[in-house]
Write a structure and sequence with these properties.
single chain, about 130 residues, 8-stranded antiparallel beta sheet
C-alpha cells in the first residue's frame, strides 16, 4: 500500500510510463494518463483496444511495470518517483473516457525514492519498498 506521502505525490503526476511486452518478447514503454482508485491503476484511451499496450496485455503478457517520476529540484539534484511491478488485465468499466475497455493494473511490488526520505543517504540511494498483498 502507498504511504500518505506517496499518495500525495501520485496526485501531482498527470502521466506515468507503462512498460509492456509484445508477443515476440520485445519490451515497449508508453507515456499514458491514468486513474487510481486506491487499489488499482486504470489505463484507457481513445481507440484504446487498437493500441500496442492493450494488445500486448490482452494477448497474454500481463506483467507490467510503471514509473511515476519528476525532479523536485535540479540544484541540488532531487529526483523522486515511484516504480511499480504489477499484473494487468483488460476490463470494461466507466472511466475517464466513458464506458469502454481499460487495462486494470494490480500492483504487486512498489518502490519509491525522494518521497519518504532524502534521495541519497550517506552516498547511497534511499528507497522505500512495499510488497503488496
Amino acid at each position: 500500500m502507498f504511504s500518505e506521502k506517496e499518495l500525495a505525490f501520485l496526485k501531482t503526476q498527470p502521466l506515468t510510463r507503462l512498460a509492456t511486452v509484445a508477443s515476440d518478447g520485445q519490451p515497449t514503454v508508453d507515456a499514458v494518463g491514468y486513474e487510481f482508485d486506491g487499489s488499482h491503476i486504470y489505463i484507457g484511451g481513445h481507440n484504446f483496444q487498437n493500441s500496442r499496450k492493450y494488445k500486448n496485455i490482452a494477448g497474454g503478457n500481463q506483467k507490467v511495470s510503471l514509473i511515476f517520476d519528476d525532479l523536485e529540484s535540479i540544484n541540488p539534484w532531487k529526483p523522486r518517483g515511484i516504480r511499480i511491478f504489477g499484473t494487468a488485465r483488460p476490463i470494461e468499466r466507466e472511466g475517464r473516457f466513458g464506458p469502454a475497455m481499460y487495462v486494470e493494473i494490480t500492483p504487486t511490488v512498489s518502490w519509491s525514492w525522494g518521497i519518504e526520505d532524502v534521495v541519497f543517504a550517506g552516498g547511497q540511494p534511499s528507497r522505500h519498498k512495499v510488497i503488496w498483498k
